[in-house]
Design brief:
Helices cover 49% and strands 15% of the residues. The chain contains 9 helices and 9 strands.
């Protein structure tokens, strides 16, 4: 790179540094949704991913309470700072999903929440003050699949088919420590096969560019091969061979959360961190634009229908007015005829008396 004192140097090579400083100063926003049946470790995984406690006062409802419980949307926001970089993280949980006896349309509140965030962003974007728009759109959805389900359940398929055109779905096999490595591989293949058979579009990692280094290309390849991610979550610190690690202690040994030989937790976190910008871009350029186009088309159709209704109402009013005028003219003509008939005999009698 040429320096400022060298011939032919303009200075726009420093533009990436300016963008970097501005982005770091502004901070970043990201919204992650976690969905799946209760007891699959959604809250534990989120706390493990971001090394924080988003649910310090959560109360698990009893079985009787779950019978009457409907799907709720629980959004928690936390400010995370690491080496001067600020991240405004919003985690959207869906307690009550899949817990009822009848789970028909239990994903509707989730669809409505995603559409509401799109609607809010569209409203703010169309307003006068666009400098401080808060982006609460859901950028990614970790969908938890039970390791004991032998593949996708009908509810899993219906959920993903209802949301795959609205959010980036990342399938996750929960509590993978209940399966052997061979069982995990078979389950992954079966889930991917069922996703393809039902024409479900999950989030696909972008291919590495040719100018990227070989390590990044290899990392991208491994991440793609790991989907759906088989994960284990834990916030418990355990002493293993003189080293403190996060994991789960069993009578037969310890499952280390951050050991790639034990689960895909590190790969999931790597995917989320290294492709966070791409998740936001896909949300804005694909899912949000689809929503925006549908709304504009709907508004256009509504405008046409309103215009047609106005024309119809105007035409009906004119026709009613013409009918009223016609009736008034007929009434006037009848009154004139009656007056003429009444005055004619009187005039005849008067003439005879004078003679």
């Amino acid at each position: 790179m040429q320096g400022p004192d060298q011939q032919g140097y303009v200075g726009f090579a420093n533009l990436p540094n300016q963008v970097h400083r501005k982005s770091v100063k502004k901070g970043f926003e990201f919204t992650l949704m976690v969905a799946g049946e209760s007891g699959l470790g959604k809250s534990t995984l989120v706390n493990s991913l971001f090394l924080t406690d988003l649910y310090p006062e959560r109360v698990v409802p009893s079985a009787v309470e779950k019978i009457e419980q409907t799907v709720k949307i629980d959004a928690s926001t936390v400010e995370i700072e690491e080496r001067g970089v600020k991240l405004r993280l919003t985690v959207v949980d869906t307690p009550g999903y899949g817990d009822a006896i009848n789970c028909h349309d239990c994903y509707r509140p989730i669809v409505e929440y995603i559409d509401d965030q799109f609607e809010r962003y569209l409203h703010d974007e169309s307003g006068l003050n666009r400098r401080h728009i808060v982006d609460n759109r859901v950028h990614s959805c970790f969908y938890f699949i039970s390791a004991s389900g032998h593949g996708l359940k009908p509810l899993d398929i219906e959920f993903m088919k209802a949301l795959h055109n609205k959010v980036n779905i990342v399938p996750v096999i929960a509590k993978a420590d209940t399966l052997t490595r061979g069982e995990v591989n078979l389950l992954k293949k079966k889930i991917l096969r069922e996703i393809a058979q039902n024409h479900i579009q999950i989030y696909h990692l972008p291919d590495a560019d040719d100018d990227e280094d070989e390590d990044f290309k290899e990392q991208t390849r491994l991440l793609k091969e790991s989907i759906p991610f088989a994960i284990v979550g834990s916030t418990q610190m355990i002493e293993v061979k003189g080293k403190s690690v996060r994991g789960r202690l069993y009578p037969w040994g310890v499952v280390e959360v951050e050991n790639p030989e034990h689960c895909d937790f590190l790969k999931l976190r790597t995917m989320l961190i290294t492709h966070m910008q791409d998740l936001q871009e896909v949300t804005h350029d694909l899912h949000y634009e689809n929503f925006r186009a549908q709304r504009l088309l709907h508004s256009k159709d509504s405008g046409k229908r309103m215009e047609e209704n106005i024309k119809d109402n105007t035409l009906s009013a004119l026709q009613a007015k013409d009918e009223q005028i016609r009736r008034m003219q007929e009434m006037v003509e009848r009154m004139q005829a009656q007056m003429k008939a009444q005055t004619s005999p009187a005039s005849s009698g008067k003439s005879t008396h004078q003679v």
